[in-house]
Design a protein that fits this description.
The chain has 212 residues and is an alpha/beta fold. It folds into three domains: 2-29, no CATH class; 46-119, Alpha-helical ferredoxin (Fumarate Reductase Iron-sulfur Protein, Chain B, domain 2); 137-204, NAD(P)-binding Rossmann-like Domain (Rossmann fold). 34% of the residues lie in helices and 11% in strands. The strands form two sheets. The chain has a three-stranded parallel sheet with strand order 3-4-5, covered by helices on one side. A two-stranded antiparallel sheet has the order 1-2.
């Protein structure tokens, strides 16, 4: 039983309890760090560091794990305009850098990226270019993966982009170099449609420059 008398704490079998230290803190050197506060430092995950496209891997996997597939897709699209393509044909070096390798096997990042795309294939995320008070008119030669990616990010920055493609269809190696069983044409069409939907003009069947 504990009873209180004159703001002092007594017990039936113990002495008065008072918050006083009778020793020195020198032995644990608290004078050097006792005033410091915890600090959070965000660092790049090794899987993301190994990703050529710079996908925000940890973030999109967390969102997908929470069932927020639309938000997960939008998160990927901030860095990579081709989640459906990469989820099928990428050689996923990110999995070699996965921390999970230290315990058993890497997280199936590539399969998760593909799943996020497939789970949202009937939804079109709203991509909003940032306001630009001085938009530039930019011409890009070639509507392959590099030209389309360049146009995508420039359009998101609020610039006016025109793509010039010698063939009748855009896509480059994605369309002409990867077989259908690895990259179905409807997936590629969906990806390219999202990019061109940003207001990018494309002039197919148009060659630029002269021939020597």
């Amino acid at each position: 039983m504990i009873r209180f008398e004159s703001m002092k704490v007594y017990t039936e079998s113990f002495e008065l309890v008072i918050p006083i230290s009778y020793g020195s803190t020198e032995i644990i050197e608290t004078g050097k760090w006792g005033f410091q506060k915890p600090e959070t430092i965000f660092m790049t995950a090794p899987c993301e560091e190994a990703c050529p496209a710079g996908n925000p891997i940890a973030r999109f996997i967390y969102l997908a794990g929470d069932g927020q597939y639309g938000t997960a897709l939008e998160t990927i699209l901030k860095e990579n305009p081709f989640p459906g393509v990469c989820g099928r044909v990428c050689f996923h070096p990110c999995e070699s850098g996965c921390n999970r390798n230290q315990y058993d096997d890497a997280v199936s990042i590539n399969a998760l990226e593909r799943y996020v795309f497939d789970a949202t294939v009937d939804r079109s995320p709203e991509l909003h270019p940032v306001p630009n008070s001085d938009p530039k008119k930019i011409a890009i030669v070639g509507a392959g993966p590099a030209g389309l990616s360049c146009a995508y990010f420039l359009a998101l920055m609020g610039h006016k982009v025109t793509l010039f493609e010698a063939r009748q269809e855009p896509g480059g190696v994605l369309r002409w170099g990867i077989p259908e069983y690895r990259l179905p044409k409807p997936v590629l069409k969906k990806e390219i449609g999202r990019i061109l939907g940003l207001g990018i003009e494309i002039k197919s069947g148009t060659e630029t420059g002269g021939r020597s």
